[in-house]
Amino acid sequence: ENRINILDIPFIHSTKKQFFHDIIIPSVENQRKLFIVTANPEIVMYANENPAYKKNILQADCIVADGVGIILASKLIRKPLPERIPGFELMELMLGYANQNKKSIFLFGAKDYVVKKAAQNIRKKYPDILIAGYHHGYVDLNDNTVLELIKHSNPDFVFVALGYPRQENWISRNMKKLNKGIYIGVGGSFDVWGG
Ligand code: UDP
């Protein structure tokens, strides 16, 4: 598909719904792994100052535009992206899909009581979702505990809410050891779900 380079980061040229239907759903249904980065201007700037982080986000299957700053930048270079694709909204679409199709999710990140509460609230709103597991994000990111939990519960969707750059670094380092799953860094989203 179509990609647009902004400050050396290749953004998918797509609307949120198109992206969800054309890329995410087929990947889940075919049990293909997918690494999604939702990049805002901060992430783009940070990547261009930190080669290791940039290398990690360039391993993503898809980088989507999160934030009006990226949309503005795309217009300035006359390759306008259609709209923002915020991580929180993508997560809502994925939860709705998981609920309708009895797919499983894993939540990794935020404080212990926050991720617990987020799981409870998600279960209330989406009763048919299978919660494969959850774990707070205050762990040594080189430790394999959470990786093993995900490996054994084999979820369809893995939401990683550690904030950047931690979440993308964790995904790029670990997803090759996992069998399936849609992997996406969702920043502070669990704080919203847990509120
Ligand atoms: N977080 C985490 N582990 C950490 C640091 C942060 O799980 O070592 C969580 C934090 O609790 C919050 C989310 O990551 O739910 C986003 O954190 P922050 O606001 O610092 O990141 P940003 O939103 O700036 O990316």
From TrEMBL:
Leader sequence segment: none
Entry GO MF terms: N-acetylglucosaminyldiphosphoundecaprenol N-acetyl-beta-D-mannosaminyltransferase activity
Keywords: Cell wall biogenesis/degradation, Glycosyltransferase, Teichoic acid biosynthesis, Transferase
Gene Ontology process terms (BP): cell wall organization; teichoic acid biosynthetic process
Reactions that this protein is recorded to catalyse: UDP-N-acetyl-alpha-D-mannosamine + N-acetyl-alpha-D-glucosaminyl-di-trans,octa-cis-undecaprenyl diphosphate = N-acetyl-beta-D-mannosaminyl-(1->4)-N-acetyl-alpha-D-glucosaminyl di-trans,octa-cis-undecaprenyl diphosphate + UDP + H(+)
Biological role: Catalyzes the conversion of GlcNAc-PP-undecaprenol into ManNAc-GlcNAc-PP-undecaprenol, the first committed lipid intermediate in the de novo synthesis of teichoic acid.
Pathway: Cell wall biogenesis; teichoic acid biosynthesis
Protein origin, superkingdom: Bacteria
EC assignment: 2.4.1.187
Whole-protein coverage range: 3 to 197 of 246
UniProt family annotation: Belongs to the glycosyltransferase 26 family. TagA/TarA subfamily.
Protein name per its UniProtKB record: N-acetylglucosaminyldiphosphoundecaprenol N-acetyl-beta-D-mannosaminyltransferase
